[in-house]
Design brief:
98 residues; elongated; mainly alpha
Length: 98
Amino acid sequence: MAESKTKFESVRGWITEHKLRTVGSLWLSGVAGSIAYNWSQPNMKTSVKIIHARLHAQALTLAALAGAAVVEYYDHKTGAKADKYAKFLQMDSYPHKD
């Protein structure tokens, strides 16, 4: 009987498979949240509000990219990535020269 994945493992698996989509979604939500917050500040000009939103989203994107790099490093270190792609490579079908 196979063990069922925990919610954390299934979320981590999805993030590992869809890194670019995760970073893009995080960026978009960061821009939207920052714009919503900055629009509630009445003392700022519109151009300053947009610049602040972009700056906050950029910082959030860098953090998300760093997180994706950590996940990628962890996958390579544990060999999970090598095991995943090993089933597609048939190493016995290629004769080696000595």
